[in-house]
Amino acid sequence: MNSAGTILAVVGTEQSNRRTRAKAVQTVMRKRHVKITELKGGDRKTALQEFLSGKGWYRGGEVDKLSEKEADIISERLVRRVGAKVTLRDEKVKALEAALSQQFHRGFIRKPGETDRPTQEQWREALLKAAREHLDEQGIEALKEALAKGTRAGPDEK
Length: 158
Prior knowledge:
The chain is mostly helical. It contains 6 helices and no strands.
């Protein structure tokens, strides 16, 4: 992805054709509620040239840093939701944020050779397991409610 929000996607196998690749991308984006527009002609050529130049594009390490930052933001948001339901001391807040963030890091950033991503249920269970070290049962229930709301910020959250 570049700083303007353009994503250059390479999808499929050597046996894939343009139509099956386009269908695969459309399916994924529709599931994620993302509007996409295929670049054609001069716009496509320009985007490819910009991508190959490396200028203005995030590379793997930069994307990983952004993913780490997002993991921290999501963890803080979830802990704020939990803190709205149960009392958490400052040291508990920090420890819980760190534990959750570590789980998000593992889910967002693949190590070389890793191909499988955790399922939603596996990820949820890993988050709850990490949180059990820091929360009592009432806190775990509050975290389950927080997770049920999703990881994106609600209208009254940041």
